[in-house]
Amino acid sequence: MSQTVDRALSILPLLAEGPADLGQVAERLEVHKSTALRLLRTLHEHGLVYRQSDQRYRLGARLFALAQEAVENLDVREIAHPHLLALNEKCGHTVHLAVYEEQEVLYIDKVESRYPVRMYSRIGKPVAITVAAVAKLLLSDLPEAERRAIAEKLDYPTYTSRSTPNAAAFLKELSAVREQGWATDLGGHEESINCVGAPIRGADGRVVAAMSVSAPNVVVTADELLTLLPLVRRTADAISREYSGKSPLKEA
């Protein structure tokens, strides 16, 4: 039975390359045409493949509907939370998770620092979009034209002497973040708070959320916080794999 399931599932990536006839499917699976036809009929009955008028098969609409439904029902916060807790346990600093919605970057999860000196932030609160590390990560993944349009509409408050001064500087930083795959806020919002973040990606490689570690410089210096970047990126990658369904199956 497992071999049958394996063969049936092997048809789907073949058809993702484009329509294929019975002979092509049988050749790819290295089975007789009668076996390939039986598998195709079963997939067709479930709407996962469709038989065209030219007798070739392509992926069925039901497969796309299932994929869309699965994506819509994914809760990145639920998936990420255990990883955020584990990161907080290792480093002790405040950990945030954020998303981009309706022209705002919002915190959707937070794990508090275990140190007595903490930063003020709360779930559901918009972040300072021109300086926050999570905002840079989320906006840097947008198409260039959209990035530029957003940057030109924003105000650029001078929170500190390190705040992003204007649209040109913001776009330059977004390009750097897009290329390097991580971001920082080193005193840009509050002189005493530093932050380092990494993106969380979906199955298509697009950034769906961003996470960060923040700490006041009375607890750790900016340089000390930057040493946590590999750990932050590994955590973000682990969340990305689980969110996109790329994690290896665990034996029961």
UniProtKB/TrEMBL annotation:
Keywords: DNA-binding, Transcription, Transcription regulation. Pfam families: HTH_IclR (PF09339), IclR_C (PF01614). Coiled coil: none annotated. Residues 2-61 form the HTH iclR-type domain. Residues 62-245 form the IclR-ED domain. Gene3D superfamilies: 3.30.450.40, Winged helix-like DNA-binding domain superfamily/Winged helix DNA-binding domain. PANTHER family: HELIX-TURN-HELIX TRANSCRIPTIONAL REGULATOR, ICLR FAMILY, HTH-TYPE TRANSCRIPTIONAL REPRESSOR ALLR. This is IclR family transcriptional regulator. It comes from Streptomyces rectiviolaceus. The lineage of its organism: Bacteria, Bacillati, Actinomycetota, Actinomycetes, Kitasatosporales.
